[in-house]
Amino acid sequence: MTTQSHRHGRRYYLSDIPLEDALDRYFKALDAVFGLRHTESEVVPLTSAQGRVTAEPIWAQISSPHYDSAAMDGIAVRSTDTVGATETSPLHLAVGAQAVWIDTGDPMPDGYDAVIMVEVVHEVDGDTLEIQAPAAPYQHVRPLGEDIVATELVLPENHTLRPVDLGACAAAGLPSLPVRRKPSVAVIPTGNELVQVGGDLQPGDIIEFNSLVLGGMVDDWGGDATTWQTIPDDFDALLAGVKAAVAQHDIVLVNAGSSAGSEDYTARVIESLGELVVHGTAIRPGHPIALGVVQGKPVLGIPGYPVSAALTCELFVKPLVERMLGVPASVRSAAQATITRKTMSPMGEDEFLRVRLGRVGDKLVASPIMRGAGVIMSLVRADGIVKIPRFSEGLDAGAEVSVELLRPVESIDDTVVAIGSHDMTLDLLASHVRRAKPQMTLASSNVGSMGGLMALARGEAHMAGSHLLDEETGEYNLSYIRRFLKGRSVVVVNLVQRIQGLILPCSNPKQIAALHDLARDDVTFLNRQRGSGTRLLLDYKLRELGIEPDDIRGYDREEYTHLAVAAAVAGGRADVGLGILSAANAMGLDFVPLLSEQYDLVIPREHYDSENVQFALETIRSDAFKAEVDALGGYGTKSMGQVVAELS
Distance between CA 453 and CA 105 in Å, rounded? Predict the structure, then answer.
């Protein structure tokens, strides 16, 4: 489906071309102008060759070893002189005439063809040695060419050099190697709003960091990335910059300006200088990718959002670098996992969903994390990627999916999966756990207290954070556990007492003092998601006050964490939100306390005694962890780590 009608020949403007078709069209366009030919050869010393790709077959110049040598410390002998030696009839050998002392690696004396280990040689006197077993020809001798024979093939062309390969080449007498020149890749940031990290930020400024990500990825794949100075949103300036970069590099990446906005010039620049092959693919994130050819070289318009930039670089730039180097396409390992919550996805686009992984019992579970194209932390936290096909409307909770792994599955086996209510102390706990036990990860997914209990019921988590208030009894969590985990044996451990209240801008400009102020016409509220303990608490308090949800502007606007609510208030997207004091403190905001609540960890008995869960609990009970939680403010730690209840 073409969103704009500017289309002719092989030029597609903001289309929804399927990923496979876009790659096929682009590679055919490049092949037609030899744009994917291998980079030329260059000779580098062995000390600089690791990770490089051989440009031609590598042949041995010498044999290794290049002489017959002793493989053991002992005596060199002629095997014929040792025939008949036994324990009952030992033989005596004359030193110098029949036996020569020798060390490992020494050349074999002329005429000698075996070595007897020093451990089985008895020295009768300085001139005579006794042996009790014969030596076979070439026993404990490394013959010339045992490892490598001169002129034999050491390594083929298009081979990525490893440390062991370098050792073999040195043994074969090769001080330097012909390798493919690293494909040179220009990364050109564009945009008036971009600033360098470390400066004073003004509203509208955006720190330019995509070049770090894109350049690092290119370097990892064997390329040589160079970041150019940022070019402003000016057609002529960008045209000149791209033209200069094409003259100097094999591949040019223009970061941002690839969409159809009034200051998005990348596609127009590519068209002006060469051919725009594809503009827009049916992927999410990364739809506005622009794929072009200028002077026979790939020029790509990479979307500006960081997740889109990283994903499209992986999908489109990586195969270009691999083709130029002559190496096969690398494929990550994959594993089957169970998705933990229902995930909707728009029809017509392949969506690349970031997930956290953990093994719960014998099941690998995948918890979706933040999906925004601008959320770089979703890539930092991700353990894997799930591709949702473009003809699917999403994934149901419990569905089996294939996950492309971003870290080894062995490390995932040491992950404790915490699904449920969000609290900042869980992030702090994850840091303490990793510091004390580097191979272990605490992976939390914020789906709300109810969502956490349901995840436990489905066997998809080791623990769940919960703060569900029973309106009738005033008790926290237990009645909900009995209802949703009926028949399951669980242990409830207190993490913290915390203060819930109204998160407000500094100085509280609208003088919001209590929950009834949420119904004012001049107040905009930001809510937590359905199923969260905070949302249930709000609804309970509103019923007490006789306030209807429809009376509150913003009641239906949702965030998944307390910090997200605080950030929205700090950014002016809301006048007030309900959340915890520590989140307000973290953002430097005002706060009106409403009540103290109990935040517990609900742990099924079958996981409670596991090594990793017990380590997490020991960390919670440590003085160091308690001190850092106290420093956050807004928490009570008197009962931290104590067992609240055991239910079965």
Answer: 67
Domain topology for 334-406: Beta-clip (2.40.340)
H and E: helices and strands count for the chain: 18, 40
Spatial CB neighbours of 582, under 8 Å, sequence gap ≥ 6: 424, 425, 498, 562, 632, 633, 634, 635
- Who wins on pLDDT, 155 or 562? 155
Instruction: Name which of 502, 500, 498 is nearest 629 in CA terms.
Output: 498
Q: What is the pLDDT of residue 1?
A: 38
CA–CA separation, 51 and 328 (whole Å): 14
User: Residue 280 corresponds to which tokens in the numbers above?
Assistant: 């827009």
Mean pLDDT of 320-329: 96
145: helix, strand or coil: coil
Is-contact 57 84, C-beta < 8 A?
no
Q: Do domains 7-38+183-325 and 41-64+147-180 have the same CATH topology?
A: no
Tell me which residue of 257, 563, 532 sits closest to 421, measured CA to CA: 532
For residue 101, list its beta bridge partners: 75
Q: How far apart are CA 548 and CA 321, in angstroms?
A: 59
For residues 257 and 250, is the Cβ–Cβ distance under 8 A?
A: no
Q: What is the CATH number of domain 69-142?
A: 2.170.190.11
